Amino acid sequence: xxxxxxxVLITGAAQGIGRGLAEAYAAxxxxxxxxxxxxxxxxxLAQTLRQKGWSAxxxxxxxxxEHQIQHFVQAAIQQTGRVDIVINNAGVSRWKSPLExxxxxxDDVLNINVRSSFLLSREAAKHMKSQEQGGxxxxxxxxxxxxxxxxxxxxxxxxxxxVALTHALAMSLGPQIRVNCVSPxxxxxxxxxxxxxxxxxxxxAGRVGTPQDxxxxxxxxxxxxxxxxxxxxxxxxxGMTRKMIYEE
Length: 248
Hints:
248 residues, alpha/beta, Rossmann fold, 7 helices, oxidoreductase, Short-chain dehydrogenase/reductase SDR, SDR_fam
């Protein structure tokens, strides 16, 4: 019941982890506002959640555009009068050799993944600052902020920047606003039943992650009672970044 009547803004909410977050907060009684460029999928999700008796609103939004982010925040404030929680989840990747990656592709990844997180946090914080209970912001990074595969430079750079942005915002916006970061590992958002036994067994936790695992982490970080948790970086990866791997 801690999220009952709270206003939650989630970007990249039409699919994947964002969809799971929207479903989780709506089921917990929050007023969920979802932003995405995928209008058909976003509106269908909002309708599905409302049919369950939950509060959900989809707002078409290209997070690369400042005025659209501002409109997204205003849409929530006009209807509920407040913003309690922001989850910056929108993100894209470009798997391409650094010798071939164009500057336009680099900029696009950084704009969607990092700049949008700053812009939405800034716009929401303007209203959170005036609220008695302040608010909470969670930025979704990735374990690729800690480790990499080849040809992931733009994505890795953006996810590392999100970690740094998180602790910087926590210093600037506290104590009224808490800012934290979640870094997911392998979170299966498509066909979980199609995963192989070895996919699960390679994880120290014994299984591949689900969007619900990330939702539970966000619940902890946005819990109104957790006022001593800010600036932190929570890795949710089934233990994979702690696993030493050698070729036999």
